[in-house]
Design brief:
single chain, 254 residues, alpha/beta, six-stranded mixed sheet, five-stranded antiparallel sheet, 11 strands, 30% strand, elongated
Length: 254
């Protein structure tokens, strides 16, 4: 091979390598599903100006929502451009075929019940370690509001429970702390999950302990325990999307 050919090949290889890039979009606070991302090759013609493959339908690929989307020109993509373009780069100043790799990370699926609305009861969060009652109520309402944003989820709070069961019965039920009593609450309301827990302060940290009980099985289905070191209540609010995802997640199959 002549020196000119070697230089041309080296230049083309350098051009292919320089074309590698990655663009990544992430949804803040969304819990990703376990395992590797779903990967697709997308194809374009004449520098990608003409699409040669169908768009990736995220709603079909990830029924529970998307956690992250990454579009990358990998080394393999760039090599494919190089091998199929030949002299077209010099004439058209663009590769004839331009493949890219799309990686989609789906959100962790939430609890479902055969297409019907999932009913969630959110009990008042217990204030501990100097957290004011009003703050615990506000943060509990914020958690309920975040859960309501999930499609197919109906949320009942203390005021809803009181309207359905009456004041005296509500007082009796909301005063319990054991799993048997909370199972009774869920059964009386036809709930799929009963969420309860506490907020407290230890030194400069906000400690969050939440649990989602499956009343039909009488056992915890999911839980969240966080120590927000040196953080205030706003840190809890910022993390609500991931907290809601964790509490609604289906338990792993055994």
């Amino acid at each position: 091979m002549s020196r000119g050919a070697v230089r041309a090949a080296a230049a083309l290889a350098a051009l292919a390598l320089s074309g590698c890039y990655t663009i990544r979009y992430e949804r803040r606070g969304v819990s990703p599903e376990p395992g590797a991302p779903r990967e697709r090759w997308q194809h374009g013609v004449l520098g990608g100006t003409i699409p040669a493959s169908r768009p990736v339908k995220l709603a079909d690929l990830c029924p529970a929502g998307v956690a992250a989307v990454e579009n990358q020109t990998t080394f393999a993509n760039a090599l494919g451009q190089l091998l199929t373009s030949f002299g077209a780069l010099a004439v058209l100043h663009a590769p004839v075929w331009e493949p890219t790799t799309v990686r989609v990370t789906c959100a962790r699926p939430t609890v479902t019940r055969a297409g019907r609305t999932v009913k969630i009861v959110v009990l008042p969060l217990a204030p501990l370690g100097g957290v004011p009652d009003g703050t615990a109520r506000l943060l509990g309402d914020a958690l309920a509001g975040e859960l309501r944003r999930r499609p197919g989820v109906s949320v009942l709070t203390q005021s809803d429970v009181q309207a359905l069961l009456g004041l005296e019965k509500t007082r009796q039920m909301l005063g319990c702390t054991d799993a048997g009593c909370m199972t009774e609450i869920g059964g009386a309301l036809g709930a799929d999950r009963v969420i309860h827990g506490s907020l407290g302060r230890v030194g400069e940290s906000l400690v969050v302990n939440l649990s989602a009980l499956d009343p039909k099985r009488g056992q915890a289905a999911a839980s969240v325990s966080q120590r927000l070191r040196g953080a205030g209540e706003e840190a809890f609010l910022d993390g609500l999307p991931s907290v809601a995802d964790a509490l609604l997640a289906e338990p792993a199959a055994r």
